[in-house]
Amino acid sequence: MRLFIYGTLLDEALRVAVAGAGGQLVDAVLPGYGVRPLSDSVVPIVQVDPQGTAVGKLWGGISADQAARLALYEGIYDYRLIDVTVTLADGTPAAAQMWVPPQDAAAGDGSWSLAHWQTHYAKASVLAAQELFAMDPLPSLSDLAWQFPMMQKRAWGQVQASQTATPASLRYTPDAGDVAVTHRKAPVGSFFRLQGFGVEHRRFDGGRQGPLPREVFVGIEAVIVLPYDPVTERVVLVEQLRMGALIRNDPNPWILEPVAGMIDAFEEPETAALRETKEEAGLDVTLRKVSGCYPSPGNATDFFHCYVGLADIPDTDQWSGGLAAEHEDLRLHVVSLDRALELVASGEMNVAPGVMLIYWLALHRAALRVEFSGGIAS
């Protein structure tokens, strides 16, 4: 198989993560086509453009196993193979195949830049591909359609974590080699994942410990938003059935909590927070960052970006929210901050990020009242 590649597969790390090493690459171009960004995405598409020339590589010597892996990866985006004739650097024509997007794929503005993609998105894309092809057996294409977005979200979270400032005015500041992950096993699970591994680390007394067998729930980055009207001092609480409480055998698994949602791959936390608040509660808010925190760092990678969402809350007690496409069945309650504090004290509000945000509001209510005494600007 000979393949003309023009987009993310030009990145060697991603190409190896998807198809493994092997084959020969030479410079090639495809006149009559242009490479554009897919609308609302970071991936490229190639489209017929009589004035354009797609620049890429001719990848020859692709094995049957590599071709199968490529078909699975490209199938995520419903790409298909077509026959093309490319031009090599010496002007020689060469027959090849090329992955192209669905006919209804819409291009975004401008040209797609490999350098820009490599700077901002390559690390997460490689991590997601590595997770996919570490699975044994590999998933079917139909299963991968709903599994791969979660892989991308997990990968994006890992990249974001690696770039996060880590203050250490009180806690220990690690040096290289102070902690090492060993015997990393392939994660198990379809939507969420559980991973076993070994860990060896420096002790506080200067000695070493491990390797110790451990397991973690490999989760995602999420946003938590508590809508709050600083003029009327009312909050919005979301009520819904939660699986963790159900499987724990909680007599009442209908939970009161803030707005909450996963951060999509390549999405900034603030963008996700505004989107989720609009989707779940129908509210446009001004975000006030409260904290970024691990809800359970002993056994999970989950990391929450927590906000108060300042809003002009409607004069009503209750309404329905959520997206039918995501099977959300939500009931929104408007209560006073004092009532929310009573719910915390009684244990009826028992979601940790919600408790934290309600207490934060209790500490800052007076200052917010003064700040917004003239109302919330629309």
UniProtKB/TrEMBL annotation:
SUPFAM superfamilies per record: Gamma-glutamyl cyclotransferase-like, Nudix
EC class of the enzyme, as a word: hydrolase
Cofactor(s) the record lists: Mg(2+)
Recorded superkingdom: Bacteria
Gene3D superfamilies from the UniProt entry: Gamma-glutamyl cyclotransferase-like, Nucleoside Triphosphate Pyrophosphohydrolase
InterPro entries: AIG2-like_dom, GGCT-like, GGCT-like_sf, NDP_pyrophosphatase, NUDIX_hydrolase-like_dom_sf, NUDIX_hydrolase_CS, NUDIX_hydrolase_dom
E.C. designation(s): 3.6.1.13
Nudix hydrolase domain boundaries: 218-357
Pfam families per UniProt: GGACT (PF06094), NUDIX (PF00293)
Catalysis performed (reactions): ADP-D-ribose + H2O = D-ribose 5-phosphate + AMP + 2 H(+)
Keywords: Hydrolase, Magnesium, Metal-binding
Family in the record: Belongs to the Nudix hydrolase family. NudF subfamily.
Cited function: Acts on ADP-mannose and ADP-glucose as well as ADP-ribose. Prevents glycogen biosynthesis. The reaction catalyzed by this enzyme is a limiting step of the gluconeogenic process.
Name of the protein in its database record: ADP-ribose pyrophosphatase
Biological classification of the source: Bacteria, Pseudomonadati, Pseudomonadota, Alphaproteobacteria, Rhodobacterales
